[in-house]
Predict the 3D structure of the following.
Amino acid sequence: MRQAMVILNPSSGNEAAIDYKAAIVEAVSDKGYEVTVKETKKQDDATVFAEEAVNEGFNYVVGVGGDGTINEVITGLAKYENQPLFSFVPFGTVNDFARAIGIPLKPQAAIEWLKEADTEQRVDIGKVNDHYFVNVVALGAVAEATYEVGVEQKTRLGPLAYYIEGAKTLAENKVYPLTFKTGEDTIEEEAFLVVIGMTNSIAGFERMATDAKLDDGYMHVFIVKKLTGFDLMTILPSVLTGEFKDHEKVRYIKTNEISIESTQSLHTNIDGDEGDDLPLHLTVLPKHIRLLRK
């Protein structure tokens, strides 16, 4: 009989994920799989479980959790060529990858989507230094501010918690001297924020990277320059209308490889969690994950 592993973060969704365990197991079992459930207890458990699934010959892996948990599962799968099929049920705060795919954000609807998923699509992921990313790499004061968002804030406010913390940095409007290298091109820019997305949904904004596709072979780089008060009034609406890349204070780069350096120390945010300091080297791994979707 075919084997499936459900990798579940019981603390995700304000500990609501565990309440749907039986329904998720039933949905996967009804597809003709014998199901093994692994529950995470600490960071990187989901990566370890995903590696076990590959090495033990599982045919299908289902992640259950937020963007961080999904990143960990994909990190475990990405190292191998003989990957099982992958899909997931989102229980996070932002759920960018789910938004990009079209998975409903309400648990029961997402489980129904999982039941109907029957089409394999190979999708891109990114690699930044020695880490993998599915959604976004961000750097700048706004990106660092997201580290201050606590579990209680996320539970109470959802994505708004990140926006509130990020807004606190706007008054400082601090910029960083950055050097970007793509192939033979070198770009130097004073940047307030840099966002590198793999999909159209970034920080919950589903029209931020309108050109992005799950399998286009590119990452989409947005370099936000120093902003004035008037710029703030125009740049935020551009995120909502799909015109962000055309804003006069935004430089847009579409590439499959980029390096970023700075003379200043600068932290990064990778798929919602704290990442490496600069320098960074980012590449696209095209059609690298076997996603099962509707």
